[in-house]
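Supplementary notes for students who missed Thursday's class. We covered one full example, reproduced here. Read the sequence, then the structure, then the short commentary at the end.
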Amino acid sequence: MSGMGLLSAPGNEIIVALTISGIDLTVPSNKEYLTAQLGIEVTSLTDYSIRIDMEVRDCVLGEGLKVSGACYECPAGTYLLQAPTVPTECEPCSQEKTFCLGGKSVGPKPGFWRQSALSYNFWPCPAPDQCLGMDISLPFDFEGNSVGLCD
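Structure (token representation):
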């Protein structure tokens, strides 16, 4: 089977039932496989059904949500600090105030700060030489680095 796709909004459950008829039991591998799957000796069979249960995950922090229902990671130069439940575009970054690595990885440049790692507001530092900004050589975290390091 090829060319089949499933589309669902984030957070939903999908149940797919595939029914196959016309299985050739004269082919030994078909008979062996079905016997193993069903747990009984298969001598005749008209239909074989497979049920597939899937859960589509919700979008997460750092992902936007397209109108089609697909989550996508915010590219470099944009970010999102809330997991969307309705179609949502990623927020553009301020080139002047922020280092913006995409996804949820955003922090202040030197001379700027923000109150928390989930804040969209970046403020000029009252003492600019003491606000060192986010160190982009360190792994992103929701601790001090994303808020801005101080001297």
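Commentary. The chain has two domains: 13-55, 63-150. The two ends are 61 Å apart (CA to CA). If anything here is unclear, bring it to office hours.
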